[in-house]
Amino acid sequence: MDEFARVLRAWRDRVQPEHVGLPPGTGRRARGLRREELAMLAGVSVDYIVRLEQGRATNPSAQLLGALARALRLTDEERDHLYRVAGVATPTPASLPRHVGPSVQRIVDRLGDVPVGVFSAAHDLLLWNPLWAALLGDPSLLAGFKHNLVWRVFTEENTRVTHTAVGEDEFRADLVADLRSAVGRYPDDAPLRDLVDRLLSESDEFAAHWEQAHVALHRSSRKTVHTRTVGDITVDCDVLSAPGSGDLRIVVYTVAPGSADAAKLDLLRVAGLQDLTHH
Fold first, then answer.
1. Which residues contact 111 (CB under 8 A, 6 or more apart)?
2. What domains are there in the chain, each with its CATH number?
3. Where would you find the membrane-spanning parts of this chain (predicted)?
4. N or C, which end of the chain is more exposed by having fewer CB within 10 Å?
5. Is 74 helix (H, G, I), strand (E, B) or coil?
């Protein structure tokens, strides 16, 4: 694990906080990210980051390595090196891509005035900007399947986001059809198979949609987000694909300029982000 610890420290040192949407702060001694900041971005404890950098933690999981690669803005080659020196098989073309490369990360960093999230083809939320968290809740507080949009839609009561009755039916049907399309493209991806199996056992509604064998890609919708800070905001949701991004989806929420919804989003950009900072 010596090489693993060495590259982890080196890559942490080169990432500046403003590159990952964090305030630079004052009185910093760290050349790049602090251990606390990397731990927050990767969703692990600070103690675990310390043990990884000291070579005292062994057998990190592929899921953790993916989270570290995204937090550290690694290229595909650097990510693969991280996997190899950790003794974990590198992602293969048969596996569903879950790595967010630097170019897509820069898109998210630059689009600070609109909520943006990056999803895998299986609808796992991989990356988001602060305004996304202010609007929809902080994803860093979620774990396991709760990072998956399809799982949350079909197994949890969602009082934060609503569609029209027709829009809700179409949204749910499109999600299942999109997931089936991912299964067709990545039939050997074990986490994807596990997700589908769990959904089939946990949700009769999902199972009913799955039986229809509809295949499609979810591209856009309109929804209303109920926020505690500024009230209801109706947004247009568009799903974009970045060429060469490995089948990732960039989800962008926008509102009509000059509208009441735009004014609320402007207010949320200030008040909502302050709430996140104080948590």
1. 129, 252
2. 2-85 (1.10.260.40), 102-278 (3.30.450.180)
3. none
4. C
5. coil
Token pair of 43 as six digits: 């969703």
Angle (nearest 5°) at CA 258 between 256 and 259: 60
What DSSP state is assigned to residue 148? Answer: B
Residue with tokens 């009769």: 204
CA separation for the pair 196, 210 (Å, rounded): 9
Residue 225 — φ and ψ, nearest 5°? -105, 125
Cα dihedral 62, 65, 66, 69, rounded to 10, equals -160
Q: Where are the alpha helices (DSSP H) in the chain?
A: 2-14, 35-42, 46-53, 62-71, 76-85, 102-110, 130-136, 149-155, 165-185, 190-202, 204-211, 260-278
Helices 62-71 and 35-42, axial angle in degrees (round to 10) = 120
With contact defined as beta carbons under 8 Å apart, do 104 and 126 qualify? no
77-98 in b/e burial notation, b at 16+ Cβ within 10 A? eebbbbbebbebeebeeebbbb
